[in-house]
Design goal:
Strand content: under 5%
Helix content: 55-70%
Length: 372
């Protein structure tokens, strides 16, 4: 059998190729992390008058080097696309520039914050800049027939996602696990769309491998943190992926503005956990007269721990909830692609989100009482 006769476009070959790339990327990231831990172990371990220890659940005196691994695997994955025997896309386009620009900017903004402990407005301006880069490259959420509404909502979404991923990074293993399942949902969408030759598949697989490797070091008790360089990179990266692949499922327009309620189901479901945590913290801090941008041990994760769960058990709760979202994602996208959109399925997904939200509020109150 000649090499020219081999079917590089078969689904089984493509899946095997990505599986091999994933394994190699995991091994590479583990080795890279070990080297960082040996030679860069002091990065991000500074103390700031005890404030950081009030923000994180565990000790702050651990290196913040996870973000370096995420970003390096991201860049290597981008370059690796050309090595695939079945690549078929024009490499340079506006979407790629939006991804490279916003993800790189997010990493740099987070790295500066890790190094100099910048005020919240610096991070906000960086997040706003990431959103502007996406919009300038044509990556925005088409929720209406009015351009300015789409732009404003895109800015709101990007800043919200980047903040929520950052705020969720408050306990070992949480942010990496949740982000990994969000990327898993994106891969499910690409698979169902028959887009396995897409450039974004290998990039998602690469970042997913970096997250899995990072969890080896970040699972409680952790040896390292991702830092703001990691959380801001992930926030920007997930924002682009969500805009391209999770905000595209639109139903019939409900009014002249062009809004489609169906379009909100999948993003709300997939990003349920960071949205619930951030919303809970923001609302409750504002009600207490506190700034929502100053960290503290008042997240949903913390209150599950106050209820008696161990750190690893809290992480497994989030993993279990995120797994269900990926299952829902499969059926929602499958129904949409086969033109059999189910209103019942939409209500089930939204009902699941509501049930988790109510459950988190219940445990929040219970945890607050037990904390005293």
């Amino acid at each position: 059998m000649n090499l020219s006769d081999f079917n590089f476009n078969s689904t089984s070959f493509q899946l095997a190729t990505y599986a091999l790339f994933f394994v190699v990327a995991v091994f590479f990231t583990i080795v890279l992390s070990l080297l960082f831990l040996k030679f860069l172990k002091n990065i991000g371990t500074r103390q700031q008058n005890g404030h950081e220890n009030l923000v994180r659940w565990a000790s702050q005196t651990k290196p913040k080097i996870g973000g370096f691994c995420f970003f390096m695997l991201f860049l290597l994955s981008v370059c690796s696309y050309f090595l695939l025997p079945f690549h078929s896309e024009l490499f340079f386009n506006s979407e790629l520039l939006a991804l490279l620009g916003s993800a790189s900017l997010g990493f740099i903004v987070g790295l500066v914050d890790d190094s100099y402990n910048t005020p919240p407005r610096f991070k906000f301006l960086g997040q706003l800049a990431c959103a502007i880069v996406m919009i300038a490259m044509g990556v925005l959420i088409p929720i209406s027939n009015i351009w300015i509404i789409d732009v404003l909502f895109t800015v709101f979404w990007v800043v919200g996602v980047m903040n929520s991923i950052n705020m969720l990074d408050n306990m070992d293993g949480i942010t990496a696990s949740v982000s990994a399942f969000i990327l898993g949902a994106a891969l499910v969408i690409l698979y169902l769309q028959g887009a396995l030759t897409s450039f974004y598949v290998i990039v998602i697989v690469g970042v997913l491998a970096a997250l899995v490797s990072y969890l080896y070091f970040n699972w409680h008790p952790s040896k390292m943190y991702m830092g703001d360089s990691g959380s801001q990179f992930l926030g920007a990266f997930l924002s682009v992926i969500s805009i391209l692949y999770m905000w595209q499922f639109r139903g019939e327009m409900t009014d002249t503005v062009g809004l489609s309620l169906q379009q909100f189901v999948l993003p709300l479901l997939v990003f349920m956990l960071p949205i619930i945590d951030t919303t809970t913290v923001f609302v409750r801090r504002i009600r207490r007269g506190q700034s929502p941008f100053v960290g503290g041990r008042d997240h949903t994760t913390h209150h599950l721990a106050y209820c008696g769960l161990k750190d690893n058990q809290v992480t497994w709760v989030f993993v279990g909830l995120a797994t269900i979202t990926v299952v829902f994602t499969y059926f929602i996208v499958l129904h949409f692609l086969t033109n059999t959109w189910s209103t019942i399925l939409s209500f089930m997904a939204l009902g699941y989100v509501l049930a988790v939200f109510v459950g988190m509020q219940y445990f929040y109150e219970v945890g607050k009482k037990r904390k005293g």
